[in-house]
Amino acid sequence: MPSTPLLELRNVSCSVEPGQPLFHDVNLSVNEGDILVLQGRSGCGKSTLLKCIAHLVLHDGETRYRGSTPQKQGIPSYRTRVLYVPQRPSLLPGTPRDFLKSISSLSAHKAASKTKPEAAAARAIERALEISSAWAIEGELWEREWSNLSGGEAQRIVLAVAVALNTAEVLLLDEPTSALDAESSSMVEKYLVNEIHSDSMLKALVWITHSEEQGRRVGTRFIQLCAGGCTEDPTPPV
Ligand SMILES: Nc1ncnc2c1ncn2[C@@H]1O[C@H](COP(=O)(O)OP(=O)(O)OP(=O)(O)O)[C@@H](O)[C@H]1O
């Protein structure tokens, strides 16, 4: 008997304006070990699709995570398991360290974890510093106001937060290296690909990129989104 997919989308449709569907009837399964590269023309709805999967925008259709609906699991808990990582942080107050501390305590609480929120926060901060230092982010940047970080620094820190929380089985990555130079991009790509095969929580990635080269480097499956839904290419687009 085939095993239950990690994540399954059934007839997911979304309209940003009433009566004007951006895309409709997206059907997709994500399995452990998958790195799904999501591509399509600018404005076709890739970010919106990731937000539908994370239950951040209203949509039609059904999402199943390990066979059950996010509603059954509880949406806040589901969002810690299937985590949307934005391309850049919206205007956040304070420093990345403050942010990680509050979000990790909250995640421990929402995930109904047995770990005490303070212990979860301390572990997440330690891990985030380790990850970000592998991406050439110095520790002192965690103490700097978000508004005083460069686009590339903020992008790597947001990504390090998502990985360090270690609650997600699926990360929904919205152009995660769009603000990075080739060398920094390569460090992030290698780390994320390795993470899927490590003993961490992370089991799969859905990765939006406009770079076909990057898609070929990281992807194991290749999805094209268009108004009519999505199609899977058997090989990376050339
Ligand atoms: N809240 C909103 N209200 C109105 N229109 C929206 C809203 N959010 C997104 N859109 C529109 O929906 C369309 C799809 O946006 P989305 O960001 O999902 O596209 P995308 O494929 O990720 O684009 P890109 O590749 O340029 O990042 C765009 O035309 C965008 O302007």
TrEMBL record:
UniProt feature coiled coil, ranges: none
Origin: domain of life: Eukaryota
Keywords, comma-separated and alphabetical: ATP-binding, Hydrolase, Nucleotide-binding
Entry keyword annotation includes Hydrolase: yes
ABC transporter domain: residues covered: 7-238
Entry-linked Gene3D superfamilies: P-loop containing nucleotide triphosphate hydrolases
Annotated InterPro entries: AAA+_ATPase (IPR003593), ABC_transporter-like_ATP-bd (IPR003439), ABC_transporter-like_CS (IPR017871), P-loop_NTPase (IPR027417)
Keyword Nucleotide-binding part of the UniProt annotation: yes
An MF annotation (GO) of this entry: ATP binding
Protein name: P-loop containing nucleoside triphosphate hydrolase protein
Species this protein is from: Crucibulum laeve
Lineage of origin: Eukaryota, Fungi, Dikarya, Basidiomycota, Agaricomycotina
